[in-house]
Design goal:
The protein is 45% helix and 15% strand. The protein is built from 16 helices and 13 strands.
Length: 401
């Protein structure tokens, strides 16, 4: 291990943009540093680089986001050299393409290997199944929800169930606190969205990158239904950037124009201050059309006291309490989503506030960054305690490919 540190963890993450994988990487860098360890992150980098530095992590810039087989192999040798030079104790992979490089590097150096399933991976061919299987080759496999854990156990035929650990994604409860967002900040955010101080519309936020399965098109269709029934009832904020998906962005813009919702639906792009955005909103919507492994945004919204509407899929079935902290709807059903929006509109402000209070208590009781950090550090300690066992033997025991 690195001199002066009790252990060294090399997290391998595609990029450091603004997704859940990236934020969890930064949060764990902070936890590793606070525990007296050295937090290394191999990544192509991105907008969260200053956050990583502030958390005590060190970026090692590598093109680990690449799926090119030659690049993957080259990255493996580079990572192996880093593992040896920096005396890495654990290699922790958080995505499939980087995981292959990380796995090979761990095998070459006989270093403990941990993976985290941040998503449910589709496998429409044997080749894709093999590609996905690297995430099930960890000495310990972390799943970001019980839903994900059950998926891993069923899909990947893990022989020892105790090698798959569910650690729910955390929300920064201290940051996502409505009491810390001033009324002036809320007013400024609403003004940025084109809302005047006396605008009576209910503000609906859908925070997600612009990609089809996140369901923005479903929300647009639902907003059109509500607008036809209740003109001027909603202001919808599709908060997220396209991350290069220009065709889908254009499709979303065309759908807004076709439904004549230019004054109803806004596309502000990436929103960096999500606590302020949630505080400026009345409802948070997550209309995904495929299962979300966890769905951190729903937890963050609830922590801010904002009622949630989400598809009845994946992690949302764990994090959203139907009728108490929000509403669950069939996936891809614009009519059902419109009905749920109208149910929220029919609630009095006091009733919505009560639902928000239940959500805040629920999030604070079960989901926090501190809990995620402590549980993951416990996994590292567990893995390091197994050092006397050959790592290759562990992998053969755990996964039947």
């Amino acid at each position: 291990m690195q001199e002066g540190h009790i252990f060294t963890v090399l997290q391998v993450t595609p990029e450091l943009s603004a997704g859940g994988v990236e934020r969890t990487t930064v949060e764990m860098a902070q936890a590793i540093s606070r525990a007296g360890g050295l937090a290394l992150v191999a990544s192509a980098g991105g907008r969260l680089e200053p956050d990583l530095e502030a958390a005590g992590g060190e970026l090692i810039r590598l093109p680990v986001h690449s799926k090119n087989p030659l690049t993957v192999i080259a990255n493996a040798f580079k990572l192996a050299r880093i593992v040896r030079q920096r005396r890495v104790s654990i290699v922790h992979a958080r995505s499939r393409a980087p995981a292959w490089s990380a796995y090979l590097a761990a095998r070459m150096t006989r270093t403990p290997f941990v993976t985290t399933f941040h998503a449910i991976y589709n496998a429409r061919s044997p080749l894709k199944s093999l590609y996905n299987s690297v995430m099930a080759r960890g000495d310990v496999i972390i799943a970001n929800s019980e839903y994900t854990r059950e998926h891993v156990l069923h899909k990947y035929h893990v022989r020892h169930a105790d090698s798959v650990v569910a650690i729910p994604r955390g929300a920064d409860i201290e940051r996502f606190d409505r009491a810390k967002v001033s009324d002036e900040a809320v007013a400024a955010q609403r003004a940025q969205w084109g809302l005047t101080p006396d605008d009576p519309r209910c503000v609906v936020i859908a925070p997600a990158r612009l990609t089809r399965w996140k369901g923005q098109r479903v929300l647009i269709d639902a907003a059109a239904i509500v607008e036809a029934r209740r003109p001027g009832a909603l202001k919808v904020i599709l908060a997220g950037d396209a991350q290069g998906r220009t065709h889908y962005l254009q499709e979303v813009q065309a759908a807004i124009r076709a439904a004549k919702l230019q004054q109803t639906v806004a596309l502000p792009g990436h929103v960096s201050n999500m606590p302020r955005a949630f505080a400026a909103s009345d409802i948070a919507v997550f209309p995904v059309t495929e299962p979300e492994a966890f769905g951190r945004g729903a937890v963050e919204a609830q922590a801010m006291g904002v009622p949630v509407i989400a598809s009845n899929l994946g992690g949302f079935t764990e994090t959203v309490k139907e009728g108490e902290t929000g509403l669950l709807i069939p996936a891809g059903a614009a009519t059902a989503l419109a009905g749920a929006l109208e149910r929220m509109l029919d609630l009095s402000p006091a009733e919505r506030a009560e639902m928000g209070r239940h959500g805040r208590d629920h999030a604070r009781a079960l989901y926090s960054t501190a809990a995620l950090q402590a549980a993951t550090i416990a996994v590292y300690e567990r893995v390091l305690g197994r050092d006397s066992q050959p790592r290759a033997e562990n992998r053969e025991r755990q996964v039947a490919l």
